[in-house]
Amino acid sequence: MSENTNNRLYLMITITNRVMGATHFLDFYRAFGAPVVFTALGRGTASNDILSTLGLEATEKSVMFSVVTPAVKDVLMRELVDTMRIDRPGSGIAVCLHLSSVGGRTALNYLISGKSDAQPDMSVKEEELMNDSPYQLIVAITNTGYTDTVMEAASAAGARGGTVIHARATDAENANKFFGMAISEEREMIFLVTSSDKRADIMKSIMEKAGAHTDAQTVTFSVPLDDTAGLYSTEN
Q1: Architecture of domain 3-98
Q2: Which label site among 39, 144, 154, 199 has the fewest CB atoms less than 10 Å from its CB?
């Protein structure tokens, strides 16, 4: 494995039925090295014919997001099959996406280790990991009630708009502080699509105006995208 590959981080997304997600899978993630998981709610949309063929019923879903290192990713993907038997029909699905950047070393440490005793980066430094795609999906995870603050910061740097989903944070066991401030379990995940040339400015603006040193306690990272449809520029 090359040095560049070793330095990569991944966004792991796991979708399973809500009961399993709320119990077994969160414990599983912690046990195998992913202490910070953000969980949102969803609903399966398979047709009745497909569900009948598989012997399944329509279920409420848990959608879990976690940032992991390559070593943890390899273990989790293997153990999802060996331990959690996610390969059984109706058990769920997991996918991994490369990250292109993380907004600050402290946010990076929190996302991959769940450490709660770190102090915020006041210098607002972005950690580059990979940047060879024309478009980026920026993910900003903030305390509930601060979406407008994040979007104002993003818009000031050229963001066109975003999509928000509600999530709960499951942090490292017994952790009750985040950058020296109390953790809010309720979080909002904001997804913004932008061209790669605007990514750094947007993330920096969010970090400066709504970052870890503020009440919003926002952490940001980005995922490279190969292509988009419907993304337009007012400059054209």
Answers
A1: 2-Layer Sandwich (3.30)
A2: 144
